[in-house]
Amino acid sequence: xTSKSAMPGLVEAAASQExxxxxxxxxxxxxxxxxERLLDSxxxxxxxxxxxxxxxxxxxxxxxxxxxxxxxxAELVExxxxxxxxxxINIGRSSIGxxxxxxILNPDLVxxxxxxxxxxxxxxxxxxxxxxxxxxxxxxxxxxxxxxxxTLSGTLGDALFGDRWSKRPAWLSETIRDKTAYQHPRDVxxxxxxxxxxxxxxxxxxxDWDAARFFLYAEEIDFAARARSCGxxxxxxxxxxxxxxxxxxxxxxxxxxxxxxxxxRYYEKYHGRLSSVLFRGIAAxxxxxxxxxxxxxxxxxxxxxxxxxxxxxxxxxQRDEMRxxx
Length: 326
Hints:
Layout (H helix, E strand, L loop, with lengths): L2 E3 L3 H7 L6 E7 L6 H12 L4 E7 L6 H6 L5 E4 L6 H11 L5 E5 L3 E3 L3 H8 L5 E9 L9 E2 L4 H10 L24 E2 L2 E2 L3 E5 H7 L12 H11 L3 E12 L8 H18 L2 H17 L4 H11 L16 H4 L2
Helix pairs in contact: 6-10, 9-10, 9-11, 10-11
């Protein structure tokens, strides 16, 4: 197993590697509690596919780096700072080498047997560029991970009803809540981004993930939208199953606010001023209705004060030039 820092030479080094069916990119940040379970699950999930795994570490302060460095089944790339999820994915894409597909994984996942093989099989369908698995909670229960495109009505419905009234009309919710819809393959607008397989053709057509706009959260919504605009379908493959511990790298009021803000940033990227103002107002209304909780009061204040957005978690600079020179 080798370890290296993120630097331009990665692209040239990656080009000389053997072609594999699936290049796996795992983004870590203080993930020592989870990363071994994920890496241990990859061989059984691969189903005979040729794979190569890159772990891009966003400046973890726990034992993540030493754990990965001690293994022979993954290559460690140190980002040199906490550059964010999108930027780390871009580093992984540049260093994974020639492959037919790229699998993006959160570290707090466990892949069930043949999960990667089932995702890869779904990529053979015409125009499918992204495939997502069935996501389960740690106890094996279904996590409703499939999503519709962000709309004013869906966002308002989720603000008003939250997880209540699961049978409400589709136009009143972003989340696909009908559990029977998770039993069969289907096209979706997007899904939560803890695990997604991207074909090499789709990866090349869409290009870099939008690291300038999305440090963390909403990057998967944006990538799926760009993939669809390039003519690719996003496909759900329920035969591929994963178990996920949400928030494996931690949660905070600032991160909750960042999630709300990045949804607004995403909506503003694709819609006009008036519609975007309405969307932001609905986002504020969502947190106003829940303002008895401290984290929602903080999110409400931040959503309403655009000047405060720059103070939310964002990419850090490299800690020092020596790390880049390793």
